[in-house]
Write a structure and sequence with these properties.
The chain has about 425 residues and is of the alpha/beta class. The chain folds into 3 domains: about 45 residues, no CATH class; about 220 residues, no CATH class; about 130 residues, no CATH class. It contains 6 helices and 39 strands. Helix 1 runs antiparallel to helix 2, helix 4 runs parallel beside helix 6 and helix 5 packs antiparallel against helix 6. The longest helix is centred in the last third of the chain and has 14 residues. It is globular, with a radius of gyration of 22 Å. The model has no long low-confidence stretch (mean pLDDT about 95). Pfam families: Pentapeptide (PF00805), Pentapeptide_3 (PF13576).
Length: about 425
């Protein structure tokens, strides 16, 4: 029996709708339009599982779904979820959008997971509503050791990590629940190469962008945050945003240059922090940290965030990146007690010789040119997440003056 006939029968018999939806998802994208037409026309309570599929110009705009799984899905062309409604958990873990993706006005009633999702085009979440956790952090699944999902973990097939200037860090796809103690662990978060907007979006639960990477404009203007929020990206626009002051899930973290009352209120520019665009701004940041030790960690975090910006052109021609590296390394030689978060950063001819830090994270980092660590004194340092997974790659010569770190990949000489 063909799918058209099955769908027509399901129109008359709601009990058949979920099995038919499963059949359509199994067949592939060529039959998807038959299903999405029904999801707009009143087929309620239907979930879709398109994990690992390849979709072209997928259009779920206006669809109402129960749950949805797009983990490891490759979405080419323009993908539309405008006005879509998800009544249960939806996951886009490690999905790849090669073109523009629009979620304007989408409604997520439960958790929405976009861990390590890659958006190569523009991403539009204008007016989206997140009823549960909005997760744009690490991309690994977390399972208990007796979870049956481990039986098929090898079937998970993320899209190749073919990003410019980056070798594949082999980020993990799944870990034991107890492997991570904090939300901050686990390497790279979501990656936005093009412009992304969350203008006027509403987050009823935590909004987690830890280690998310932004390559262009990032707009959160007018957004409403009712739970824990974390964002380091220093050029994000939070004009008119508001936070309720909820700390039930932990403290929130705001980009340097923005401030909000501890009890909640409007997010406003911090008059005590100078603009740090361009070399003069970097010098001003450096001076600010010299004058105000209480801001040094936030300034280091900001410099790290600038170095984690994806690079789509030849990294060797990136003079601002080199200057940011220089300022960071120089301050690490004079500001004891700070920690460095360079997970996934792209660095070129980085010189960390003589630098000090409480903790230095280089998981998944990409070192181009000649990299120097001679005389560096890090109380703790990591160049991978767990064994070889999430490893850093040295594309050129590396100078340590001592034993090199385990599990990092060296493509040049090591001394």
């Amino acid at each position: 029996m063909d799918l058209v006939t099955l769908i027509e029968q399901a129109d008359a018999d709601p009990a058949r709708r979920q099995p038919v939806a499963d059949a359509v998802c199994a067949v592939g994208p060529e039959a998807l339009r038959l299903l999405t037409d029904r999801l707009r026309a009143g087929w309620d309570g239907i979930s879709v599982d398109l994990a690992g599929k390849t979709l072209v110009d997928a259009d779920f705009s206006g669809c109402r779904l129960a749950g949805a799984t797009f983990a490891d899905t490759r979405l080419h062309g323009t993908t539309r979820f405008d006005g879509a409604t998800f009544d249960e958990t939806v996951t886009f873990q490690r999905a790849l959008f090669t073109g523009d993706a629009t979620f304007a006005g989408a409604r997520f009633a439960a958790d929405a997971a976009f861990g390590r999702t890659r958006f190569r085009g523009r991403a539009d979440f204008t007016g989206a509503r997140f009823g549960g956790m909005a997760w744009f952090g690490r991309g690994a699944e977390t399972w208990w050791d007796d979870d049956e999902a481990w039986d098929t973990v090898e079937e998970l097939d993320p899209a190749p990590w073919d990003e410019p200037n980056e070798a594949d860090p082999d980020w993990p796809v799944a870990v034991l629940v107890e492997d991570y103690q904090d939300w901050e662990e686990g390497g790279d978060g979501a990656r936005f190469t093009g412009d992304v907007t969350f203008r006027d979006a509403a987050f009823a639960g935590p909004a987690w962008f830890y280690n998310a990477r932004f390559g262009a404009a990032a707009t959160f203007a007018g957004a409403r945050f009712a739970g824990r929020f974390h964002l380091d990206h220093p050029t994000a626009d939070l004009t008119g945003a508001h936070w309720t002051g909820n700390v039930e899930d932990g403290e929130s973290g705001w980009p340097l240059g923005w401030t909000v009352p501890p009890s909640g209120g409007d997010v406003v520019p911090d008059a005590g922090v100078p603009s740090f665009a361009g070399p003069s701004g970097l010098a001003a940041l450096s001076q600010l940290g010299d004058d105000r030790p209480d801001l040094r960690q936030r300034i280091v975090t900001t410099l790290c965030a600038l170095l984690r910006v994806p690079v789509v052109s030849d990294v060797r021609d990136d003079a601002p990146r080199r200057e940011t590296q220089r300022v960071l390394a120089d301050r690490l030689r004079h500001w004891p007690g700070t920690s460095v978060s360079l997970s996934g950063a792209v660095l070129v001819d980085a010189d960390f010789s003589g630098c000090e830090a409480e903790y230095a994270e280089f998981c998944g980092a990409q070192f181009h040119g000649t990299t120097r660590f001679a005389g560096a004194a890090f109380k703790r340092a990591s160049f991978s997440l767990d064994g070889p997974l999430g490893h850093a790659t040295f594309h050129g010569a590396a100078v340590f003056g001592t034993a090199p770190p385990e599990h990092a990949v060296f493509l040049g000489t090591v001394s």
